[in-house]
């Protein structure tokens, strides 16, 4: 279970958000909404341990994530709003390296299959700089196909995706929830999920 208690985020002299309290159980999906600058990305970065809150704490399985170290990081998949792919590497190389950094070793065959599922068949050996923004986003999200972590933190997951890709990612998240996973997704678009318990958090400026 993920628990957030009395969470404040301050940037410079400005409080971005305050007194955030929530809990996420297995099979639960939380959609985070809000205008640009309301703190969606900051919240996700706090939840995954990349940013320290000004006040409050994030607990995983009852323990503060700051005390868990690697035990927490191996339970989380975080994909930011930027695709974070290396332009000089091919789609296939990016996918295998990104998984390797997350502790997942993929064969060339498995990686090729994932890219095909994400609509990138025939583009596996293209340098990432030649891919469109939508294709780069598909490449970044292909990590979800090999992820076995319990908690997914996804920032603007649907950005630059066409309708087919939105349908695909929705089904991937549904499968994750059905297997007892949890997902926190910051997005301006509604995700109509057929599985899991749905909650919404609205951040305001």
Report what the structure shows.
Helices cover 30% and strands 28% of the residues. With 205 residues, it is α/β, with parallel strands linked by helices. Strands 6-7-8-3-9 form a 5-stranded parallel β-sheet, with helices on both faces. The longest helix has 16 residues, at 163-178. It starts with a strand and ends with a strand.
Present the secondary structure layout.
Layout lengths: L1 E10 L2 E11 L3 E7 L5 H8 L7 E6 L2 E2 H4 L1 H4 L2 E4 L11 H11 L6 H10 L15 H9 L9 E5 L7 H16 L3 E5 L10 E7 L2
Parallel strand pairs: 3-8, 3-9, 6-7, 7-8
Antiparallel strand pairs: 1-2, 1-4, 4-5
Helix pairs in contact: 4-5
Order of helices and strands: EEEHEEHHEHHHEHEE
- Radius of gyration, in angstroms, nearest whole number: 17 Å
Indicate the low-confidence ranges by residue numbers: none
The percent range for helix content is 25-40%
Determine the number of helices (DSSP H or I, runs of at least 4 residues): 7
Write a concise synopsis of the structure shown.
Helix 4 (91-101) crosses helix 5.
Which labels suit this protein?
9 strands; 7 helices; 205 residues; four-stranded antiparallel β-sheet; five-stranded parallel β-sheet; alpha/beta
């Amino acid at each position: 279970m993920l628990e957030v208690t009395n969470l404040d985020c301050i940037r410079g002299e400005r409080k971005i958000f305050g007194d955030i309290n929530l809990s996420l159980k297995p099979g639960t999906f939380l959609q985070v909404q809000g205008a640009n600058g309301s703190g969606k990305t900051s919240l996700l970065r706090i939840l995954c341990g990349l940013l320290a809150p000004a006040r409050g704490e994030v607990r995983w399985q009852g323990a503060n994530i700051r005390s868990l170290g690697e035990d927490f990081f191996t339970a989380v998949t975080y994909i930011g709003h930027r695709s974070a792919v290396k332009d000089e590497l091919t789609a296939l190389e990016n996918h295998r390296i990104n998984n390797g950094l997350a502790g997942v070793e993929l064969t060339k065959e498995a990686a090729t299959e994932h890219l095909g599922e994400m609509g990138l068949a025939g583009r596996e050996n293209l340098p990432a700089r030649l891919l469109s923004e939508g294709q780069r986003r598909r490449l970044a999200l292909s990590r979800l196909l090999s992820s076995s972590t319990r908690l997914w933190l996804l920032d603007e997951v649907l950005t630059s995706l066409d309708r087919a890709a939105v349908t695909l990612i929705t089904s991937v998240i549904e499968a994750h929830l059905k297997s007892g996973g949890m997902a926190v997704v910051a997005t301006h678009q509604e995700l109509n999920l057929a599985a899991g318990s749905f909650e919404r958090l609205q951040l305001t400026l």
